[in-house]
Amino acid sequence: MKSMIFSDAIKNRNSIKFLYGLDHINLDPYFTTEEGGKKYIYGRTPSSVSIRKYEYSKIVNIKIIEDRKFSPIIPIMSLAS
């Protein structure tokens, strides 16, 4: 169920909100992965420029924010060193 919610949000570029432990998280979801038998979702919180990962098993009460769309922020590195 979580995978379907996250996939829909990523595909439609909808922000999501959920509880992660005791923290309320608003997230612009970018992609999901499986590492070492655990699933993760990666995304950016609106107040940050960095990407964070969240473990599926610690996420509860997921809601898609239908009226909030986002565009991924892709860091651009200098080609000259």
Overview of the molecule:
The chain is mainly beta. It has a domain at 1-46. The protein is built from 1 helix and 5 strands. It has one helix at 2-12; strands spanning 14-20, 23-35, 38-44, 52-55, 59-69. It has a 5-stranded antiparallel sheet. The longest helix has 11 residues, at 2-12. It is globular.
Please give a handful of descriptors for the protein shown.
81 residues, mainly beta, five-stranded antiparallel beta sheet
Report how far the terminal alpha carbons are from each other. 45 Å
Following the backbone from N to C, one meets helices and strands in this order, namely HEEEEE
Largest sheet, order of strands side by side?
4-3-2-1-5
Class per helix and strand makeup: mainly beta
**H/I helix tally:** 1
What radius of gyration results from the CA coordinates?
13 Å
Q: Report the oligomer.
A: single chain
Backbone shape: globular
In which range does the helix fraction lie? 10-25%
Mean pLDDT reading: 87
Unreliable residue stretches: 77-81
The beta-strand count equals 5
Give a summary of the structure in a few sentences.
The protein has 1 helix and 5 strands. The chain is mainly beta. Strands 4-3-2-1-5 form a 5-stranded antiparallel sheet.
